UniProtKB/TrEMBL annotation:
This is Endonuclease/exonuclease/phosphatase family protein. Residues 35-263 form the Endonuclease/exonuclease/phosphatase domain. The keyword Plastid does not apply. SUPFAM superfamilies: DNase I-like. PANTHER family: CALCOFLUOR WHITE HYPERSENSITIVE PROTEIN PRECURSOR, ENDONUCLEASE_EXONUCLEASE_PHOSPHATASE DOMAIN-CONTAINING PROTEIN. It holds the Pfam family Exo_endo_phos. Residues 1-24 are annotated as: Disordered. Residues 1-15 have a biased composition (Polar residues). One of its GO terms (molecular function) is endonuclease activity. The keyword Plastid does not apply. It comes from Spiribacter onubensis.
């Protein structure tokens, strides 16, 4: 199921960002700085036992949440496209703060796009969000298949129909069977686009059957494997990923040592082909 959604805009002022060269037909830059980060609704977790001793922070307001969101904003502001998972869209636990909008405004991103996948009224608004220094041509919200509802894909298209960059933001299910079904759906969405970035918390490692399936079906690749991101205080599992089409050359890929959530942020710098940036 797919729905076209309204593009949301934040502050029009921003720090130095990606800029297209003069005469570019697509409005895209030659180089993009990417980040994928599961921020756990702004909760900083340092030990496993805090899931239990401080679990109330997932349902009730916490005075430390906004200061931590400001630290996250300071971290992400030097990137061009930031895919965020596990945000709150504005409910009791977040003090009715739309965290996507808050981070876009605080980090001075001019554009932001949000998808709420599990709305629980005043209690919680489980969301994903993409912060961008580039204006999107089209944004689509997809509900991913699965026995338990509440997973989605946010597909954001930049450039023109003839020279398009597709960015897909995901937070996949916990069960392998559901992830295989969800990535089969994603593969159908991106198969015909030659320039694709897929990022998110995929809840599986680089060598998992489901991730190998997606790469085989679409040609997407992960330049560096086995970069652990979870848990942030002792990273052992690589479940956060950024995958790119072969047409995008990768300068670097790394995990940042920034334990502001229970995940660490994954980052990548890519160069776009001339067809996209018009150089």
């Amino acid at each position: 199921m797919s729905d076209s959604i309204t593009c949301a805009g934040g502050s029009t002022s921003s720090p130095p960002a990606a800029e297209a060269k003069p005469g570019s037909a697509t409005g895209l830059p030659a180089r993009l700085r990417l980040m994928s980060f599961n921020i756990q609704a702004g909760i900083q977790t340092r030990y496993y036992h805090q899931y239990f001793t401080r679990g109330w922070r997932h349902v009730l307001p916490d005075s430390k949440r906004v200061p931590n969101l400001r630290r996250i904003a300071s971290l992400i502001r030097r990137f061009d496209l930031v895919g965020l998972q596990e945000l709150d869209g504005g409910s009791l636990r977040s003090g009715f703060v739309d965290q996507t909008a808050f981070l876009a405004d605080t980090a001075e991103f001019p554009h932001w796009y949000s998808q709420t996948n599990r709305p629980l009224g005043r209690l919680a608004q489980h969301s994903n969000g993409l912060l961008s220094r580039l204006v999107a041509r089209r944004v689509d919200e997809h509900r991913l298949p699965g026995r338990i509802p509440g997973r989605g894909a946010l597909i954001v298209r930049f450039g023109t129909e003839e020279a398009e960059l597709m960015v897909v933001l995901l937070h996949l299910a916990l069960s392998q069977r559901a992830r295989l079904t969800q990535l089969a759906y994603v593969a159908d969405c991106v198969r015909d686009c030659p320039h694709v970035i897929v990022m998110g918390d995929l809840n599986c490692n680089s060598h998992s059957p489901e991730l190998q399936y997606l790469c085989t079906e679409t040609g997407l690749r992960e330049p560096l494997h086995d970069l652990p991101t979870y848990p942030s205080w002792r990273p052992e599992r690589n479940i956060d990923h950024i995958l790119v089409s072969p047409s995008l050359s990768v300068e670097s890929a790394e995990v940042l040592d920034a334990p502001l959530s229970d995940h660490l942020p994954m980052t990548m710098v890519v160069n776009l082909p001339e067809r996209l940036h018009g150089g």
